């Protein structure tokens, strides 16, 4: 009986037609003889984080000794509560491309900005102009022209500046920002995000204001493209498996699981 209760407390069981033990048990009286009440001292003792993979654009880690409900809370916090900087206002001085101003502004707002949000304040309510402490200014000035030396019909050779990328955004320091940040500290995260396509004579002249925000206000402020979690698998073979069946079973799982 004790073993059954232990499995209910610590294991989520995937069966052929159902998933068992999906409910949380970290509250008093959940099981007779067990005190599963959330205790901060025990939580600090048992909880640990192991970094599995870390790079500029990806982070994978294991959270050990924690209930799945709390893990999901961390996931939701990553998506909606961690602040970042994003383009909030776009001042259009000239736009002769085929993209409407509001569509262009929306696309610019979704470009991830490389800037440390801890160094900026939230914009005060009613502040329309922004200050060096809460606003980052970008400028985009580009004009498409025909390449007089082109001898093909390939647009990449035929036209100059016909593709507008995120790398064309130029950071304009305001106030004392030039003293606080060096070149490269503030920029788009990726420089190859396509913003628009132009043809000879068409041009863009824009000025953009970036502010600090969180994903709960708008998804453009979310620091992650996605955040997900999965439970650590524990596979129990009920009988020996040999030969071709063993190989087929192994291919059903990620490398190293079996």
Report what the structure shows:
This protein has helices at about 1-10, 40-45, 70-80, 100-110, 155-160, 175-180, 245-250; strands at about 15, 20, 50-55, 60-65, 85-95, 115, 135-145, 145, 160, 165, 170, 185-190, 195, 205-215. The chain has two domains: about 1-80 and about 225-250, RNA polymerase, RBP11-like subunit (Gyrase A, domain 2), CATH 3.30.1360; about 85-220, DNA-directed RNA polymerase, insert domain (RNA Polymerase Alpha Subunit, Chain A, domain 2, Beta Complex), CATH 2.170.120.12. It has about 260 residues and is an alpha+beta fold. Helix content is about 20%, strand content about 25%. The model has no long low-confidence stretch (mean pLDDT about 90). The strands form six sheets. A four-stranded antiparallel sheet has the order 5-14-7-11, covered by helices on one side.
Task: Identify the notable features of this structure and list them briefly.
single chain; 258 residues; alpha+beta; Gyrase A, domain 2; RNA Polymerase Alpha Subunit, Chain A, domain 2; 2 domains; four-stranded antiparallel β-sheet; two-stranded antiparallel sheet; 7 helices; 14 strands; elongated
Architecture blueprint of SSEs:
Blueprint: H1 2-10, E1 13-14, E2 19-20, H2 40-46, E3 48-54, E4 59-64, H3 68-80, E5 84-95, H4 101-109, E6 113-114, E7 136-143, E8 145-146, H5 155-158, E9 159-160, E10 163-165, E11 170-172, H6 177-180, E12 187-188, E13 194-197, E14 203-213, H7 243-250
Antiparallel strand pairs: 1-2, 3-4, 5-14, 6-12, 7-11, 7-14, 8-9, 10-13
Summarize the structure.
By secondary structure, this protein is α+β, with helices and mostly antiparallel strands. It is built from 7 helices and 14 strands.
């Amino acid at each position: 009986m004790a073993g059954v209760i232990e499995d209910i407390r610590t294991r989520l069981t995937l069966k052929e037609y159902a998933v068992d033990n999906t409910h949380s048990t970290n509250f008093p009286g959940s099981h007779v003889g067990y005190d599963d009440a959330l205790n901060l001292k025990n939580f600090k003792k048992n909880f640990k984080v192991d970094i599995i993979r870390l790079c500029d654009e990806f982070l994978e880690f294991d959270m050990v000794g924690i209930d799945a409900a709390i893990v999901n809370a961390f996931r939701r916090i990553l998506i909606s509560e961690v602040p970042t900087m994003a383009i909030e206002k776009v001042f259009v001085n000239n736009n002769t491309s085929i993209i409407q101003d509001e569509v262009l502004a929306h696309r610019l707002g979704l470009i991830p900005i490389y800037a440390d949000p801890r160094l900026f304040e939230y914009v005060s309510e009613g502040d329309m102009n922004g200050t060096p402490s809460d606003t980052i200014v970008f400028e985009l000035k580009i004009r498409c022209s025909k390449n007089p030396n082109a001898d093909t019909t390939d647009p990449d050779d035929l036209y100059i500046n016909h593709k507008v990328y995120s790398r064309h955004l130029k950071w304009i320091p305001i106030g004392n920002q030039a003293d606080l940040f060096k070149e490269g500290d503030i920029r788009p995260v990726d420089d190859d995000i396509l913003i628009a396509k132009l043809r000879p004579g068409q041009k863009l002249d824009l000025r953009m204001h970036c502010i600090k925000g969180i994903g709960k206000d708008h998804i453009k402020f979310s620091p992650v493209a996605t955040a997900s979690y999965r439970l650590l698998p524990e596979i129990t073979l009920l009988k020996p498996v040999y030969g071709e069946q063993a190989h087929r079973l192994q291919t059903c799982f990620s490398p190293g699981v079996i």
